[in-house]
């Protein structure tokens, strides 16, 4: 299949994506996003259960199904794979995919540890394939808008950032959900969002972290609720909380010397969501409040085209795999701080 005019009169083939597994995120977000994208098409899906693969293929009109991940990786017509597998399988299947010559989009977190992430990046570099971590929210245009406001100086110097991401679903443990077992937990699952947001908006790495966590014996001692501080240069800090056992929120607030930016739905955007806006408030005798409406766009599809343009045309990835290694270094420190109940310097 060919598409025209991605670059002038140039005609190129679409990237043929293979999906490793029938996870809900694949069905709910990534498969529809690839179909909506300009650069890709879903060519095959694999599952350890051929029946499950065929069920998903029928639902989404995917032409080829496989009863094992290895079979899909052996398909020479597949250009790239999406890996939505449990966290502890990310390293294994990213490296196997790279060895098979496939570009990789791997769900967050990229790995369980920084050293694993480094191995994955090295394997992809040696194979000459693109590796990207699945943080769809960063591709939404509102963050470009927010960065421009910060850089303009409208809210003054950044004094701090506050982020939240919580939801309540501890009973999924009974269904064998990997989030509630060793290798899961709230930092890996959703704490990574405010952490990456602070690093992205500040354009720097934290110097130290302090994290306090509810480690639940009911859920293999994973962090079910977390409150943390990341220390950046010039006394700036991210204060964040995340949890799998708390009422739902996903917010971000950037506090400046002269004003603040509040994002009521910071990491999730949905069509017809009343929270698709952010608010700028400037200090003064009478605060000036400005609400900025953000049109709905499919941030997953934007992510897929950013990856597609990198594969097809060599465009620079907005968030290269090296950024994921740096992020895993922070995650390692957060988990160490939670378990040892102390401040950890990076």
How does this structure look, described?
Helices cover about 35% and strands about 30% of the residues. The N terminus is likely disordered. The strands form three sheets. Strands 16-15-14-13-9-12-11-10-17 form a nine-stranded mixed β-sheet. The protein is globular. The longest helix has 20 residues. It has nine helices and 17 strands. Helix 1 packs across helix 8, helix 4 packs parallel to helix 5 and helix 7 packs across helix 9. By secondary structure, it is of the alpha/beta class.
Distance between the termini: 48 Å
- Which class best fits the helix and strand makeup? alpha/beta
Strand content: 25-35%
Number of strands: 17
Show unreliable segments: 1-9
Going across the biggest sheet, name each strand in turn.
Answer: 16-15-14-13-9-12-11-10-17
Shape, per Cα inertia axes:
globular
Give helix and strand order, one letter per element, not per position.
EEEHEHEHEHEHEHEHEEEEEEEHHE
Strand count, sense and closure of the main sheet?
A: 9 strands, mixed
Number of helices: 9
Alpha-carbon Rg, integer: 20 Å
Mean pLDDT: 93
Helix content: 25-40%
